[in-house]
Write a structure and sequence with these properties.
It contains 7 helices and 10 strands. The protein is α/β, with parallel strands linked by helices. It has a single domain, classed as Spore Coat Polysaccharide Biosynthesis Protein SpsA, Chain A (Alpha-Beta Complex), CATH 3.90.550. Strand 4 (about 45-50), helix 2 (about 55-60) and strand 5 (about 65-70) form a beta-alpha-beta unit. The N and C termini lie far apart (about 35 Å). The model has no long low-confidence stretch (mean pLDDT about 95).
Length: about 190
């Protein structure tokens, strides 16, 4: 049962004013760390959806074996369009996918493993990590939910999708708020990088 990850990396990073995904993070970059964590957590393949900073993100991931997909609608700011671009690249045998954000380098491989294990153990079509009752990333959606996600259009958002399925979600409680944090500003980057 193939279980790939889709990483949303198409944003314009307007508050950071630079290609935040290619900033240094440990031995790699922000986006490089996200990819490494997903692989360490058990994702069979990683699909990275690029947009605003396409050239620099693709250069940062050169030689890593990820599949790159470009979202031509990146400028509209709709995450659902990036997700849909990534979904079109999913391998035929995939039973589910993980949805991760490119600006969350601090997520833990253990969280990824636990989300995948919850899916494999329960068969629940929607698995979401949670910290103090707040949903975070990466979350997992199984094939039965894909048509709805593929048809999601504004004003409906991914949050609306999760809210509509709230009663069906299998929550995986985690001990840290890393699943909620992302890098939007230079201050976020300095704080999370430590």
């Amino acid at each position: 049962m193939t279980l790939p990850a889709i990483v949303l990396a198409a944003g314009l990073a307007t508050r950071m004013k630079t290609s935040k995904l290619t900033l240094p993070w440990g031995e790699t970059t922000v986006i490089g760390q996200v990819v490494a964590t997903l692989r360490a957590g058990g994702a069979d393949e990683v699909i990275v959806v690029t947009g605003g900073w396409r050239d620099s993100v693709e250069a940062a991931l050169q030689g890593t074996g990820v599949r790159m997909v470009f979202n031509p609608r990146y400028a509209d700011g709709e995450m659902a369009h990036s997700l849909q671009a990534g979904m079109r690249a999913l391998p035929p045998g995939a039973a589910a996918f993980l949805l991760a954000l490119g600006d969350q380098p601090q997520i833990r491989a253990d969280t990824v493993r636990r989300v995948i294990a919850a899916f494999r153990g329960t068969g629940n079509p929607l698995v979401v990590p949670s910290f103090r009752k707040r949903r975070g990333h990466p979350w997992l959606a199984a094939r039965p939910l894909w048509p709805e996600l593929a048809g999601l259009e504004p004003p409906r958002t991914l949050r609306d999708f999760l809210n509509a399925h709230a009663s069906e979600i299998c929550y995986v409680d985690v001990s840290g708020d890393d699943i909620l944090q992302d890098l939007d500003t230079p201050e976020d980057y300095r704080r999370l990088r430590g």
